[in-house]
Each structure stands twice: as structure tokens, then as C-alpha cells.
Amino acid sequence: MKTSKLAWKSFAEVPRTYEALCQVHLPRPLHDKIDLENATEIVDFLAGHDLNADQEDYLDLLSDLVEEYEEEQTPFKTARLSGLAALNYLLKENDLNPTGLSRILGVDRTLGGKILRGERSLTVDHMKKLGRRFAVDPGIFVA
User: Fold this and answer.
1) pLDDT score of 49
2) Is 48 in contact with 16 (CB distance < 8 Å)?
3) Could you tell me which of 94, 104, 95 has the C-alpha nearest to residue 125?
4) pLDDT in tens, 5-55
5) What is the pLDDT of residues 93-135, one digit of tens each?
6) Which own/partner pairs from 39-43 qualify as long-range (CB within 8 Å, at least 24 positions apart)?
7) pLDDT above 90 for 1
8) Which of 2, 26, 30, 79 could form a disulfide with 35, with the two C-beta atoms 3.0–4.6 Å apart?
């Protein structure tokens, strides 16, 4: 049974200091799916917001821990996937649609569909946002 680590309902309630964030959820290596789900819930909540330096450091560390765990557990090799294929895989695994992609990128809701159809390319900023959101190296979205 998953237990939520989120102690806040809106971004305004998110602690502003690294220490206060650690009091909510102390970053540590992930050992199982529950650890992964809890860390991912926090990463998902923080991603896409205008973070201060402490919040950004906290998000980066949690994202790194999620990435490390998923690399150990995930059977697919990103080197074999195109950037678009990797993006489609991650969207499918996270039950996200083109509108959800647009929301992650912080762009007009139609841009997600254009990117997925190959009509528009991801920018470096888009790749960084996706990397943070999915806790992966942004480089997997290149070509």
C-alpha cells in the first residue's frame, strides 16, 4: 500500500529551505517500489514550478536517486531508442497524453501533440524539464 509523502496540497505550502524539505522526506537511496513512488510523487509535485536554490537542490538530488534506482530496475536501454521513442515510452508509462506533455513543458496545450507527431522539436529547455520530471538524463531526448 502506497503512503503519500506529500505534506502539502499547493506549491505555496512547500518548504522554502533544504532543511525543511528534508524534514518532510529525507533523501536516501531507494530500495523498493514504495521508496520510488514516494520520491517520484515529490519530484512530480515540484517539477515545473519556479523553485528557489534550496528547492532546486532538493529536486535535483531526489531526481538523481530516482534515476539511479530506475537504471538498476528498468530493462530497456535508452541508447537504442530515439528521443521521440523515449519520450513516448515515458509518457505511456506515466499515463500521460499530449496535453500532459504540454503541461510538463509549461507551453500551449497543442505543442505536446505537435512534438509527438514530429511537427516540432524539443528545445534544450524542454529536454531539461523532461529530464527533471522523469528523473532521466535529458540527453535521451536528443534525436
Assistant:
1) 87
2) no
3) 104
4) 577 888 899 999 999 999 988 999 999 999 999 999 999 899 888 999 999
5) 999 999 999 999 999 989 999 999 989 999 999 999 999 999 9
6) 39/5, 39/65, 39/66, 40/66, 40/135, 41/4, 41/5, 41/6, 42/5, 42/6, 43/132, 43/133, 43/135
7) no
8) 30
Domain ranges of the chain: 11-73, 78-141
Q: Is 112:100 a contact under the CB 8 Å cutoff? A: yes
Separation CA 90–CA 84 (nearest Å)? 10
Q: What is the pTM of this model?
A: 0.53
Within a 13 Å sphere around the CA of 82, how many CA atoms are in the beta-carbon half?
8
Q: Closest Cα to residue 45, out of 6, 78, 85, 71?
A: 6
78-141 architecture in CATH? Answer: Orthogonal Bundle (1.10)
The Cα-based distances of 143 to 13, 63, 85 in angstroms read 38, 23, 10
**Taking the CA of residue 109 as centre, how many other CA atoms within 13 Å lie in the half-sphere pointing to its CB?**
4
5: helix, strand or coil: coil
